[in-house]
Amino acid sequence: MVAVGRVEDVLAGTVVRAARLMRDLDDQIPGALEELKALYPHTGGAFIVGVTGNPGSGKSTIVDCLIAQYREAGLRVGVVAIDPSSPYSGGAILGDRIRMQRHATDDSVFIRSLATRGHLGGLSRSTQDIITVMDAMGHDVIIVETVGVGQDEVDVVSTAHTSVVVVVPGLGDEIQAIKAGILEIADILVVNKADRDGADRTVADLSMMLDLRAKGAKTVRILKAVAIKEGGMVELVEAVDLHRRELDSETEGRRRGLERAETRLKDLVRTLALERALALLESGDGLSALVERIAEREIDPYSAAEQVLAELMGNP
Questions:
Q1: pLDDT tens figures, 206-215
Q2: Structural domain ending residue among the three candidates 41, 56, 72
Q3: Separation between Cα atoms, residue 17 and residue 110, nearest integer Å
Q4: Residue 255: inside a domain
Q5: What is the pLDDT of residues 48-89, one digit of tens each?
Q6: Spatial distance between the Cα atoms of 28 and 136, rounded to a whole number of angstroms
Q7: Out of 7, 158, 182, 256, which could bridge 263 as a Cys pair, Cβ 3.0 to 4.6 Å?
């Protein structure tokens, strides 16, 4: 059942009500999904910027500087900061807010930290849900900072309009970095901590990587920055705005929008199918019995999975 009052409060930008809905969505509280459905028609106005990169590259500091730049322009800013969950306790430090404390009292900035809870790809399971709520609240720009686990944080490209990949000089083999899938998703490459030795070499290596791509590949801009001094942040905002204008004026924007919608739909279908299949199995001793048969080699796991799906299709 939809809590109409809370939906209206979220649309009005009421922070407390929105924060509670975000918590309920992250905790998968029954009823929260119905409210999300009611909010979805009111979304689409926010521009989403994804910031990803290796640990220690300065992503959080760059996000902090971007918030300052967008606030100077009078824009409302939402931030979704993802932190890794412990594989043992399941907890997370959620420490990105520490670097963004100067914005904590700004009513036009909403920062939400999320734990990955075992979700791969650099984002959290509920990231898109939280973005939807922030969008419905009326935020002009939503910045998504990924967890920073390495080379496989490619989910952000299916979430953000513009993907910013942060690298730093001196972290090791530049050629290995060039091979990383994380660099291939970039719309903008930021060489942070550019006051270090090797910054120009890193820019050259990245330029070489871009030159080796197939003909007709998308344009990727490379910027140097020293985020702690906010150097390069004005240029980064300008580069993001330029990319936004390109998306608005070309068919690329619609193509990416369709890709994001398709990815979101497939992810939801996959998640719902898994949840319902497990619920079907666990409704009796079906799961343990099937697992035992697989372990005893009475049935192969492939046939078992097909059997579960067949039963699921017969139990909508």
A1: 888 888 777 7
A2: 41
A3: 13
A4: no
A5: 999 988 778 888 889 999 999 999 999 999 999 887 544 333
A6: 19
A7: 158
